Amino acid sequence: MPALADAWIQARSTAVPADLRVRVRAAIRGVHGGEDIPATLALAAESSLSAALERPLARAAAADLLAADSLLTWACEAVAEAGAPAPAERWIGMARRLAVLLPR
């Protein structure tokens, strides 16, 4: 599991309902790669959105969609906190990756 992203989420999710926290951390565990926190969170959001779209009528889809929203929000927060140049470009890039998954 990307340890930095997991620790980052743990520090910010103390007030988050336990079910959502478990789902978010599971999505993060499914991400393979480096320790770039925003990228890890965005990939986990993409995975959660894909899961929701695979079974849109299932009850679990709502929880997956909520996890995707939370993860993308936290990814944007992580970009802003990092103070990286051109954060808007990175936010737009993350949103575009997710938009490709949506049905037209």
Summarize the structure.
The protein is mainly alpha-helical and 104 residues long. Helix content is 74%, strand content 0%. It has helices at residues 3-12, 18-29, 37-54, 59-82, 87-99.
Fold topology:
Layout: H1 3-12, H2 18-29, H3 37-54, H4 59-82, H5 87-99
Mean pLDDT across all amino acids: 87
The end-to-end span amounts to: 33 Å
Tally of individual helices: 5
Low-confidence stretches: none
Structural class category = mainly alpha
Could you explain the architecture of this structure?
- The longest helix is centred in the last third of the chain and has 24 residues.
- The termini are far apart.
- α1 packs antiparallel against α2, α2 crosses α3 and α3 packs antiparallel against α4.
- The model has no long low-confidence stretch (mean pLDDT 87).
- This protein is an all-alpha fold and 104 residues long.
- The radius of gyration is 13 Å and the shape is globular.
List keywords for this structure.
74% helix, single chain, globular, 104 residues, mainly alpha
